[in-house]
Amino acid sequence: MEINRIEISNWLKNLQDSICFSLEKADGKSLFEEENWTREEGGGGRTRIIKDGNVIEKGGVLFSAVEGIAPDFLFKEKEHSISEPTNENTKPVFFATGVSIVIHPKNPMVPIIHMNIRYFEMSGGIRWLGGGIDLTPHYIVQEDANYFHTQLKNVCDKHHKDYYNKFKKWADDYFYISHRKETRGVGGIFFDRLNEEDSMSFEKNFNFWKEVGEAFTPTYTTLIEKNKNKTYTDKNKEWQLLRRGRYVEFNLVYDKGTKFGLETNGRVESILMSLPKLAGWEYDFTPDKNSEEEKTLGLLKKDIDWIANH
Q1: Contact yes or no for 57/106 (Cβ under 8 A)
Q2: What is the spatial distance between Cα 190 and Cα 133, in angstroms, rounded to a whole number?
Q3: CB-CB neighbours of 209 under 10 Å
Q4: What is the distance between the alpha carbons of residues 302 and 185, in angstroms, rounded to a whole number?
Q5: How far does the chain reach from its first CA to its final CA, in angstroms?
Q6: Radius of gyration of the CA atoms of the chain, in A
Q7: DSSP percent split of the chain into helix, strand, coil, nearest 5
Q8: Is 147 helix (H, G, I), strand (E, B) or coil?
Q9: φ and ψ at 198, to 5 degrees?
């Protein structure tokens, strides 16, 4: 039986439940608050926000499933284009569902994490899977970057020998703040429009896609446990705010998910949940020579092999 949108949506809802439960346990104090919302043109979602916890300052785990007439921008911009424009009298309809996560920790020694996995279909037989997961440490620790990428490579290698290198490169290019000439963090994997290709059927890619989603909890809770009790200073907190500022710049200027949500009349509060509670900018900031801040800036580059370099 062909995998359908209902099966995919139900799996995503269960994933949201599982991740929220695990993050509450890892935080040890705060619980997620849920808001259900509907979209006037069709569909809706359930937004879950956690804040002011022992570990998590602000975070969200969102599920959405929206549908309706495909918005015009999907056919106009190269990065969003999903097919050739059709006759105006027969505008296609679309369906999109996914889970999006961003966690901003309290302790600057715990990294920010983001994951999004999504499914898109449109009349005319178009359907594909997409997703990505990336890590944004305020201070880059080689051991943690190695661990993170090793977990992702293990998932990729189970399904396709080329996926890790291909999707790691894609993430390096995607999570790049062009105007700063630096990556957002240590990257991860990013992929889009997976359907059928070479030896990979849609079903095989669906299994890969699910394992990416399932890898989130064990990977991130391990990093939380390792770093949550590390001591930090006011200087570390000030640096955390500056790095969050860079995170905001990326999400508001470049992130396709943010753009898709805003241009499909999504729920603004849910779309912008990815932004931290507090962020900072300082004019022409330059870190001290040989400081941990300077070291981190020096590692915000594309094409670093975090596994081999450890």
Answers
A1: yes
A2: 7
A3: 22
A4: 10
A5: 44
A6: 19
A7: 40, 25, 35
A8: helix
A9: 50, -120
Pairwise CA distance, residues 5 & 11, whole Å: 10
pLDDT in tens, 15-59: 999 999 999 999 999 999 999 999 888 999 999 999 999 999 999
With beta carbons less than 8 A apart as the criterion, state whether 137 and 236 touch.
no
The CA distances from residue 150 to 21, 154, 156, in Å, are: 24, 6, 10
**Residue that has been written with the tokens 């999903």 in this structure:** 82
The type of residue at 37 is W
* 44 bridge partner residues: 38, 65
DSSP 71: P
Give the span between the Cα atoms of 221 and 77, in whole angstroms.
Answer: 37
d(CA 60, CA 190): 20
Beta-sheet strands, E only, within the chain: 33-38, 43-51, 56-69, 93-105, 112-122, 126-136, 176-177, 182-183, 187-194
CB neighbour list of residue 105: distance below 8 Å, 6 or more residues apart: 55, 56, 57, 111, 112, 224, 228
pLDDT tens for 78-119 read: 554 455 555 556 778 999 999 999 999 999 999 999 999 999
Per-residue pLDDT, 80: 47
DSSP 152-199: HHHHHHTT-TTHHHHHHHHHHHHSEETTTTEESSSEEEEEEEES-BTT
- Measured distance CA(72)–CA(76) in Å, rounded: 7
Q: How far apart are CA 85 and CA 91, in angstroms?
A: 9
* Active-site residue set: 114
Contact in structure between 82 and 74 (CB atoms under 8 Å): yes
How far apart CA 186 and CA 192 sit, in angstroms, is: 20
Burial 212-245 (b: 16+ CB within 10 A, else e): bbebbbebbbebbeebbeeebeeebeebbbbbbb
